[in-house]
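Thread: Newbie trying to understand structure tokens

Hi all, I'm a second-year student working on a class project, and my supervisor (Dr. K.) asked me to get a predicted structure for one chain before our next meeting. I've only ever worked with sequences, so writing a 3D structure as a token string is new to me. If someone could post the tokens and maybe explain what I'm looking at, I'd be very grateful. Here's the chain:
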Amino acid sequence: MNAAIIAIGGELVNGHTLDTNSQWIATHLENLGFNVQLHINIADREEDIVNAVRYAMRHCRVLVLSGGLGPTQDDVTKLALCRVWGCTMEPREAYRLHLEQLYIKRNKPVPENLGIQYTFPAIARLISNELGTAPGLYIGQDDHHLIALPGVPFEMKHIWVREVEPLLQEHFPAQKLLRHHFEVALVGEVYIEERLTALRMQYPDLYFSYLPFYGSVDFSITATRPGFDAVVFNGVVRDIRRLLEPYIYSESSESIAAAVIRLLQKHTLSIGCAESCSGGFIGHQLTNVPGASEVYLGSLNTYSISAKINILGVPADLISVHTATSREVAEVMAQRAHTVFGSDIGISTTGYIETSEEQPVAFVHTAITNGRELEHHLITLPYDRDANKQYLANRLLFHTYAFIRKYAIAGGAGF
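---
Reply by user tm_fold:
Sure, no problem. This is what the structure looks like when written as tokens:
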């Protein structure tokens, strides 16, 4: 079943506000088995909303709108829906009483222009909004199902979970589609697609989706029709796992930092960091994961040469001979992190996070150690300063993930 999402608001179109509602709605529609075909962003203009809805109806049976249901003059979504279906606006007396009680309960004066808030398209069914004054709307007409929701994100999400999902499941009970996620690092979507060409040709009813993100790819397969054979689908999942095994770090939608924390917790291991050019970003990524305090001991942000020598204990003569941005220094930094924190694993970064006239290539030396085994990885950085930090973190944390699997899971030395 195809679905369209229409986000309404001038602030979305002009870029002042990021449209997170559409991303959230799309994810939840897909989880219910809908095939999201369209995303449309439009300003709060009645004519534009009418045209967008009519266009979406030509391609999709299910439409979800967000925004434009409030009490101000630019909230014209309800008027536009009346034009689409040729109906009139009508007051709902029960909702007027509800609004008056709501304002009284909140110790607020009842606004003079309350009328617009309890007037709705005649054919619309109201969807309860416990957190705000604007209810959602449901219109089921002409073999189409339209749901209009407030644009305030926390209100929209609350209504969706409490009211919209049950409503959609009532009308489309057999919509659940088979889907499987893979999180992949070190290789790009072109490599993945090439490796899986034969599978894609063999199973045209499976949709292969690739979302690259700074050194990793969120890859998924989805059956494009209900009733796809689950045994066949699981066989394809196993084939993909075999073809991409060295690069898969998760089969759920989680970050590489979360995968590292999960693996450390599983094997009762701890980690400490010594960072230079990453400026604490590796530690930041790890501490974004709930439960990180069980395994993450800390990070020394030794950005300057003096900090590397006086705080971390890197020998000054080593830096003099090899420079502070060398492999040799990265390896000692990782060893010192392992020692200083008393952690099972120490990791490090040192190098150039962006290019300059003096340094035309951005690169970072990284190292990982468990006190016995020591790995070095040179990572070349292709983006600007901020993006390079994310790219560096993803690459180093994947190498750390692989290091833990190699020596903790495979029974290697050092743990």
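A couple of things are worth pointing out once you decode it. Residues 283 and 361 are 25 Å apart (CA to CA). DSSP finds 15 helices and 17 strands in the chain. Feel free to ask follow-ups in this thread.
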